[in-house]
Amino acid sequence: MHTAERVRRIKPSPSTAAAQRVRELKSQGLRILDLTVGEPDFDTPDHVKAAAIAAIEAGETKYTPVNGTPRLRAAITAKLLERHRLSYGDAQITVGGGAKQVIFLALMATLDEGDEVVVPAPYWVSYPDMVRANDGTPVIVDCPEADGFKLTPQGLRSALTDRTRWLVLNTPGNPTGAAYTRGELSALAEVLLEHPHVRVLTDEIYDEIWYDDGAALSLAAVEPRLADRVFLTNGVSKTYAMTGWRIGYGVGPADLVTAVNTLQSQTSSCPSSISQAAAAAALTGPQDFVRETVEVYRARRDTTVKLISETPRLSCATPAGGFYLLVNCKGALGSSTPDGQRIDSDEDFARYLLDSQQVAVIHGAAYGAPGYFRISFATSADVLTEACTRIATACAALS
Ligand SMILES: Cc1ncc(COP(=O)(O)O)c(C=O)c1O
User: Fold this and answer.
1) Where would I find the beta strands (DSSP E) of 11-64?
2) What is the spatial distance between Cα 351 and Cα 319, in angstroms, rounded to a whole number?
3) Which of 205, 236, 283 to mutate to test the pocket of ligand 1 (most atoms within 8 A of CB)?
4) What burial letters (b/e) apply to 343-354, b meaning 16+ CB within 10 Å?
5) Alpha carbon of 309 to ligand 1 centroid (Å)
6) Is the CB of 235 under 6 A from ligand 1?
7) Which of 279, 250, 218 minimizes the C-alpha distance to 69?
């Protein structure tokens, strides 16, 4: 079978590959402690499920407008107004099958061959391949741990060219949990104001899973002069444990939103009517679920950070948001396992954890962060504690 060049230039997501490997090992009867998962381990709240059932019973089972139901669009507008004082007209909102699809369509709508997209590393695995699939060129900017894994104005400036179409800014970020402060966003905005041809795609999918004071910030709100160049994306997957419902959204310049809608009209026509009813209920209903789950994540984060920090050869920064830790394992590189294998890379280290201790993590190179590995703490405290104990045993056995 012939496959198109655009497919051959991308690869399946490494997190999906890791999940597949965990499933295989489990099917062989092994008990794997799985820290690879990128979704909440909670169930969708009952009132959200009830809204979906009510939608089915009310016959809301047909195509909706391409850009989403008026009810869901109103819920999104209200959230952005309340949270960020950002005001969007109806022509500036699109709803799609997950933030992932919205981001993909925004890139498809704007990239021609050779157009560049600045992607700060560590990055969510999908960005570079989404850019490549749409004929663009990802320009990866390394953001070291010493800079808090965040893009600096100098880093941004050095990556911009006449071909730059987008900067992708994921805050709070996957896999680091790092979030930009007001000052940091303003400093990046100063550079962007000098380059009016560059748009910014902000991915704010983890904005509510937030541990620091105040709230996670949005570039469009911090620098209103950029608001008409920012495409803000978000969704309900992570905040409301709704990954399987597939609802995400994007807001921004009307011309871009129209282009995204045109593509959506020729791909999915619209997202699921039932999931949209559920998402509207999630956004407008009681928010106790969010507060409660964030406290659970916070406790897990604190336990995991403490255990990893006590482990020789490993260290990690404390994330401000999200449910991931990016663990520095450079201290283990160059060492040898008890059966004489050399650990030369984060990938070797992740394999060693899986083979020797049945702990599954994702190696950092998958996120553009060699020398690190990612732990998801969207799993029970018991699993996390046992996994960290086993990781410590694995580290102690290195020589
Ligand atoms: C940074 C980031 N953006 C977007 C997504 C996808 O979200 P959705 O389920 O809305 O497609 C994920 C999911 O892992 C993510 O980590």
Assistant:
1) 33-34
2) 25
3) 205
4) bebbbbbbbbbb
5) 28
6) yes
7) 279
User: Which residues on neighbouring strands pair with residue 360, listed in sequence order?
Assistant: 34
- Asked if residue 124 has its Cβ within 6 Å of ligand 1, the reply is yes
What are the pLDDT digits (tens) for 340-397? 999 999 999 999 999 999 999 999 999 999 999 999 999 999 999 999 999 999 999 9
Instruction: Tell me the C-alpha distance between 226 and 200, whole Å.
Output: 9
Q: pLDDT digits over 280-305, tens only?
A: 999 999 999 999 999 999 999 999 99
Nearest atom in ligand 1 to the alpha carbon of residue 101 is: 11
d(CA 361, CA 344): 17
> Does ligand 1 have an atom closer than 6 angstroms to the CB of 374?
no
Establish how many alpha carbons lie within 13 A of residue 332's alpha carbon, considering only the half-sphere containing its beta carbon.
Answer: 32
Query: Is residue 281 within 8 Å of 47, Cβ to Cβ?
Result: yes
CA 15 – CA 351 distance, rounded (Å): 14
Nearest CA to ligand 1 atom 13: 38
Substitution site in 100, 168, 171, 249 for ligand 1 pocket (most atoms within 8 Å of beta carbon):
100
Pick from 94, 125, 126 the residue to mutate for probing ligand 1's pocket: most ligand atoms within 8 Å of its CB: 126
Ligand 1, residue 99: give the atom nearest the CA: 10
Q: Residue 49 contacts by C-beta under 8 Å, 6 or more apart in sequence? A: 278
Rg (alpha carbons) of the chain, rounded to whole number: 21
Compute the distance from residue 205 Cα to the ligand 1 centre, in Å.
6
Residue 119 CA: distances (Å) to CA of 125, 130, 167, 178, 227: 11, 11, 6, 15, 20
Which DSSP helix (H) or strand (E) runs through 199? Answer: strand 199-203
d(CA 150, CA 163): 23
Length of the chain, please? 399
